[in-house]
Amino acid sequence: MSSRERILRRVRDALGEARGTSVDVPRGYRRRLTEADAATRADVIAMFTERVADHRATVRHAGADDLATSVAAALWAREAQRIAAPADLPFGWLSELDGVHAVADTGLTDLETLQALDGVVTGCAVAIAQTGTIVLDGGRAQGRRLLSLVPDYHLCVVHADQIVGTVPEAVARLRPERPLTWISGPPVAGGPEARRVEGGHGPRTLEVLVVED
Predict the structure, then answer these.
(1) Collapsing DSSP states into helix, strand and coil, what is residue 75?
(2) One-character DSSP codes across 110-141
(3) What is the rounded CA–CA span in Å between residue 133 and residue 138?
(4) Residue 105 and which of 3, 90, 146, 211 are 20 to 30 A apart at CA?
(5) Which domain of life is it from (predicted)?
(6) Three-state secondary structure of 158-211
(7) Mind listing the pLDDT tens digit for each residue in 148-165?
(8) What's the pLDDT tens digit per position in 55-109?
(9) What was the pLDDT predicted at 157?
C-alpha cells in the first residue's frame, strides 16, 4: 500500500459511515442592518464614513455638482502631476484638473509606467457600511485590477447610492465571475519584528470621495 492510499484510508476511517452525506449549513446570519444600527440612509453613509476612517483611509464628502472640484483638490493636495485613470472614467470627474496630467489606461500601459505615476482615480462597484469596504469589479470607471494595486495613491469615488449596509447586500449586487477586489483601507502586511507595514501589496494611501447625489 502506497503512502497516498494509507492516508486516504485513514481519512475514510475517520469519517466513518457519515462520509458522503450532505450537511445543512446554517444561513440564519443577519443580512441587513437593523434600525438600531442605522435608521436612515444618512446613518448608513455615516457608518461607512466612520468605518473607512477606522481603516486609516481619508474620507471626503462632496455634492454631485462639486465632484470635479473635489477630485482636483484631492490631487492638488498631494501635489500630484501625473495620474492614471481607467479609459472609461467619466470625463467630467477630471474636468477641473489644472497642472495634473491624466494617463488613460487602455490595458496596454506597462508596469513601469504605472509605478512612476503619482496615483490613480477610479470609481467602484459597491461599498459596505458595516465593514468600511470598497469593492471593485473591473466595471465602468474602475479599470483593470492592476490600477488599484500598483500606484502608491488611490482616490476612489463612491456614490452614495452604491453604499449598502452589509456584506450579503453587497454580494447580491456583484457577479462572482468578475475580477473582484475588496479594499478595506490601505493594504497591511507584517513587517520585520511584527511591525505594521502599509502598502505592502497595494497603495499606501487610500482616499475615498463620497458623492451625495
Answers:
(1) helix
(2) -HHHHHHSS-EEE--SEEETTTTEEEE-S-TT
(3) 16
(4) 211
(5) Bacteria
(6) EEHHHEECCHHHHHHHCCCCCCCEEECCCCEEECHHHCEEECCCCCCEEEEEEE
(7) 999 999 999 999 999 999
(8) 999 999 999 999 999 999 999 999 999 999 999 999 999 999 999 999 999 888 8
(9) 98
